[in-house]
Every structure is written in structure tokens, then in C-alpha cells.
Amino acid sequence: MNKLLLSTTVLALLAVPGTAEARKKPKPAPAPVAVVRVAPTDPVELYYFQHGEAPIWLRNDATRSAVGQLSSILRRSTIDGFAAGPALAADVDAALAAAVPGNVVATQASEVRISKAWVAYMQHLRTPPKGLVYGYDLLKPQSRPDQILLTTAASPDLRAAVTRLSDVNAIYRSLRDAALASGVTTADPQLLSNLERARALPAGGRFALVDSGNATLTMYENGQVVDRMKVIVGTGETQTPMIASIIHYAVLNPYWEVPPSLTKKIVAPGVLKGGDAYLKRNGYEVMSNWTNDATVVPAAEVKWAALAKDPGLVRVRQAPGPLNSLAGMKIPFPSGQDIFLHDTLDKSKFLKPDRHLSNGCVRLEDAQRFYRWLHGNSPAPTTKEADVLVKLPQGVPIYLTYLTQEQGADGRLASRGDPYGWDGRPDRQLAAATYTSPTRGAP
């Protein structure tokens, strides 16, 4: 009986917590506390958050040298019209000094500060000038912070990339360098206007450039000039706007849609004086409306005298032939501005020193030569049909701009007049781009 009582007591003690057996069992570890990082709202900080804080500038000695290059560029960036440049240069210098080796937190903070200065400068350089019309969104400069930083991070030589990207393109660099050579440190209104227009041009590749400032067309391949010709551009009243687009085809033997201003000025008086015979003699046709489905209507149905008040009431076009004002070729490109390149019958005007003579479109000195360049030296086919579309092997970007300054032979800045009065007046650039024409949407 006593043995049974003892055994029961021992078993009870073994079951009590805190006994020797119980103390041998390890206590369960506390559950880990999950640390959740919240994505930052600042776009530069978000870039680093999404890329594991991988550095761009503070990776090694070579990339650190690019920081010094960036600081130098920012100090002189008032010439670019970037007023915040000198202050950002000082912040970049301070950030580099604070990036103490071994101090991860300080280094990461410095990395972000440097990138914020770089992004601010790049966004300034990639802001298009007022009045520039894009025919395609893909031609717009990439200005999102993550896109800028991804491109920068992918550069095999960061120092060279900083210089190249800050140069923008060869035309921009030549203007800026000429200004610096002239002792200019802060852009005046004329220089600032020219730099703004120049920075919208591509850095390389194959493209055509129409400069309404000096009325020339320049052809580029791999960023280098391969050919140039004279053009005729808009007058001071009918200014050629700034456009960035892509040429996809040429039109042979095109109809010419007579601008309403010329219908009022030339065609209507001719009809009132010479009747239907005047229209036939000049190859003019009166169309029922401005759509692609328009039909030819008798001239007698038009109240020609009323065109003095509203020339847009009637659409007149000129059939292809020896009198057609577009001669044998039209080269359009999307823009919504009713602006295109074309051949011309009157070659004598290319001898004039001032070639601001058109209604806004661009007349080519040698349309066949430009066509051959577009089509890889293939001549334009012979055809008697009207409005024949010939597609290019590959689309060619075209830029219409307006420059009134250039780098002179002595390396200094040279001005060549301001026929449109745009320098220092972005509102006038914008007005040229928003001019509405009743012929918009015509074939």
C-alpha cells in the first residue's frame, strides 16, 4: 500500500511543470516580426527602392569620377537656362563628401541626392519648346525619372555618358560652346530660345531637318550631314510651324489644294473676270466639300463674290499637270498642321537671299534629289496617274525647326536675324502651331 502511494506521488511530480524533465524541453522561439517597407512616393527614391538600392554613381572610383563631371556641368548650366544648376552642383559636392566608405546609410542617401540633381537637369534639357507639334508620341523625349536613371545606369562609361547626354546633340552643343567661347555664361532671350529649339532635335540616326530660320533642308545619316539644299518656307504672316514627324511616303502627280487665302486673292477674281474658262485654263476644279468623298461641282454654283468675307466657303484644287503649283511631287507627314514638302515650278525664287515666301509649306530646291535620298538612291517612278502614293522602304523622321543663331567660323556665336520674331517670344511660336486652316483633313 505504501509502495503504491509512493509511485503515484512520483508520477504526479513528473507531470508538474517546472520539474527537471520539463526544464529539459526548449522553449519555442518568438515569432519573427515582419518588416514591411513602404514604397516611397518620390520617383527617384522609388527607382532605388525597386532596384534594390543598387548604386549608379558610387559603385567604384570610375563612377565616382562621373560625379565630379556632373558637378562641373551643373555649375555652368545657367547657359542652358537651368537656374538651379549651381545650387545643385554644391549639393552634389556635399553628397559626394558625405558618402563615407563603410557607412551604407550615408552612401545610399548621397546616391539618391546625386541622382535627383541629375534627373532635374535632364528633365530641363528634355522639355520641348512651346509650339513644337509632334506627329508621333514616340518622337517625344523620354523625361520620366526612372527612364533617365535606367539609361544612365546602363552606360558602360558613366563619365562619357554624362557628357554625351548633357551635350544633347551636335547642334545644341555647337550653340552652347559658341556662347561660352563668346564669354556668355547666362543665356539671353535669343540664345535661350535657340537652345530650347535645338534641344528637341535627335542626337543621331537618319533624319531630315528643315530650318525655317535660314530656309535650308539638311539630310543626316548617323548624326552626320550628308546633303543640304535650299528651301522656301513661310512668310512672316504664314509662318512654317515647328514639327517633329515621320515621312512614310511620297505622292507623285498630286492635286494641289488651293489655300482659301489664295482662292480669295487669286482664283475668285479670276473667275469673276474670266468665268469658267479661267478655271479650265489653270486646271482648277471646284469641289463640293473638304472631305475625301467630295465631288466636282459646276463653278456657276459658287457665289464667288461672297468669298471676300469667308474664303473657306469653297474648296478649289488644281489638277496635276504642267501648271500645278506642287509640280510633280508632294511629301506629306502627320502633324495636323496641313504642312508638307513639295516640288515647285518656279525655281528662280531659290536665288533670292530671303526665301520666306510660301504660305507655310516647304518648297524643295531639288525634289528628285531629296526623293532619291529618302528611297535609298532610287529615282521616282514615271507615271501619268494622279495622286500616286509611293511608300518609303522605311519611315524617315523629319524635324521642322527655327534657328536664328549658329557657331561662326571663329567658334563664337553668330546671329542671322529673326524673320518670324520668335526669339524671346514663345507665345508666337505657339501661335504658329495652333493656326487653323480650312484645308486640314483634305486629301
TrEMBL record:
<dbReference type="InterPro" id="IPR052905">
    <property type="entry name" value="LD-transpeptidase_YkuD-like"/>
</dbReference>
<protein>
    <submittedName>
        <fullName>L,D-transpeptidase family protein</fullName>
    </submittedName>
</protein>
<feature type="domain" description="L,D-TPase catalytic">
    <location>
        <begin position="206"/>
        <end position="391"/>
    </location>
</feature>
<keyword id="KW-0808">Transferase</keyword>
<keyword id="KW-0133">Cell shape</keyword>
<feature type="signal peptide">
    <location>
        <begin position="1"/>
        <end position="22"/>
    </location>
</feature>
<dbReference type="Pfam" id="PF03734">
    <property type="entry name" value="YkuD"/>
</dbReference>
<feature type="active site" description="Proton donor/acceptor">
    <location>
        <position position="342"/>
    </location>
</feature>
<dbReference type="InterPro" id="IPR005490">
    <property type="entry name" value="LD_TPept_cat_dom"/>
</dbReference>
<comment type="similarity">
    <text>Belongs to the YkuD family.</text>
</comment>
<feature type="active site" description="Nucleophile">
    <location>
        <position position="361"/>
    </location>
</feature>
<keyword id="KW-0961">Cell wall biogenesis/degradation</keyword>
<dbReference type="InterPro" id="IPR038063">
    <property type="entry name" value="Transpep_catalytic_dom"/>
</dbReference>
<keyword id="KW-0732">Signal</keyword>
<comment type="pathway">
    <text>Cell wall biogenesis; peptidoglycan biosynthesis.</text>
</comment>
<dbReference type="InterPro" id="IPR045380">
    <property type="entry name" value="LD_TPept_scaffold_dom"/>
</dbReference>
<feature type="region of interest" description="Disordered">
    <location>
        <begin position="413"/>
        <end position="443"/>
    </location>
</feature>
<keyword id="KW-0573">Peptidoglycan synthesis</keyword>
<feature type="compositionally biased region" description="Polar residues">
    <location>
        <begin position="434"/>
        <end position="443"/>
    </location>
</feature>
<dbReference type="Pfam" id="PF20142">
    <property type="entry name" value="Scaffold"/>
</dbReference>
